[in-house]
Amino acid sequence: MQIYLPIAEMSVHILLVLGLGGSVGFLSGLFGVGGGFLMTPLLIFIGVPPSVAVGTQAAQTVASSVSGVTAHMRRGNVDFMMGAVLTAGGFVGAGMGVWLFNVLKYAGHIDLTISVGYVFFLGVVGTIMLAESVPGVLKKRPAAVALAARGPGRHMWMHGLPFKMRFRRSKLYVSALLPLAIGWLVGLLVAMMGVGGGFLMVPAMIYLLGMPTQVVIGTSLFQITFVTAGTALLQATVNQSVDAVLALLLLLIGVIGAQIGARLSNKVKGEHLRIMLGLIVLGVAIRLALDLVIPPSDIFSLGTGEAAP
Amino acid sequence: MMRVFLVLLVLICAVPAKAQQVPLVADLSNHLVAITTGFSGTDVLLFGATDGPGDIVVVVRGPARDEVVRRKGRFGPIWANSDSVTFRAAPTYYRVASSRPLDEFASETLLARQQIGLENIRLLNSDETLPAVEVTSFRQALVRLKTDESLYEQGLSDITLMSNRLFRTALHFPANVPTGTYTVEVYLFREGQITAAEIVPLTISKIGVGADIYDFAHGPLAFLYGLLAVLLAGSAGWIAGAVFRRV
Q: Which of A208, A224, A294, B123 has the fewest CB atoms inside 10 Å of its own CB, making it the most exposed?
């Protein structure tokens, strides 16, 4: 059965959308990631305009992060102060991202920017994940996760920055500029690439800020919830690019897939999960990179609806 | 505007010859194509009658819009869009059907004047400094890409003539058809000249829930639409989390 997506202005087979939502939801539950980095390229691949894919994905990420953040809040794993500062930076980044997205769209470079962005970020993150997990599995010992040397005695350039703030839950006294900058970059990615940005924020919080690992996930989900909500709102108001029908369809089956994935993840070794996720992330990056370098079958393309106003 | 004027002119000139008898009548089975939630393309039947032998040509034009055609080039190892041409007021949809191949009964000058045929669509290039060869290749690309999307077509849905009087053809509108006001022009050709013409309007619009959502999202309440979408997504996530916690 075909279903007409009112904002994307295209008709797709309902099973295709449900299949996408279910499988990406399953993977996101299994690996504990947002899944936006898989969903946005897949939506563009099936013909959804890039702006609608990014805007819709932002709305959809709200759903998955809300259910995650409520679970973490119950366990007290959210540093609200840190979350608020990260969110403030995220809003600025998202606002700039939406603006930059439109500039690039009218210049005809948005597809390229999205692809290059994905290749770069996923390539780096996938490589780090594999580099970290593979030796651990091969030598049958836990990977060296304790890279983040915390506590007194470590002094880096960023500790000299002004506007220091105390973050009680994280037991940190650092410059507010640091979480603001991290939040800003994540907001930019949300608005331009349709990802939640957790893959970037979590390592940055552990290694750069030195936050305790138990509050990292909850706090990052807190930021993602508000920044994706803000981005979706902005995209809907400025670009009219949030397809509620598409988001709802992806959501309905996605939450079920995520729960099944989460159940299954308890039965698989953490190290193996990280390797699998690393391979998927790297696979998407390589696939997108190949599309950039392989000579296109048709060098001409229609920039539908992209004529500058 | 000019085109409509010409058609009217032809009509006025043609009618007095046979004062009472109308040489050409045509109508559509449906003047409104509704894009509903389950829309996957549709056929509209065009039918009509003539007062004698002749060739029938049907031209369907969708609403005009600026179309950007981009060309990729190589930048180091990667391929990226390099240059583009904007064609002003290009028809979003264009279809020609005829009872015989066009070149068998109509002169090229006449077809060009009436913009009949894919090569005769008037496309105004916004950049006048561009060399003609370049414009031609971009123009061909536009027609080819539009044809690939089934939005431009020539000759595939040909016209069936019955006893030289009655004719009919099915006009296909694919799932990705743009909305707006369409014109269906019907021409009667005799001895290489247009002896009669008729224009039938056709509206393609979104109807039902999809249309309401579209209007809501594009209207003055776009912010409210976004807010509702976010709240809907947020509460869906919250409910899912709460439900599955108990299972």
A: A294
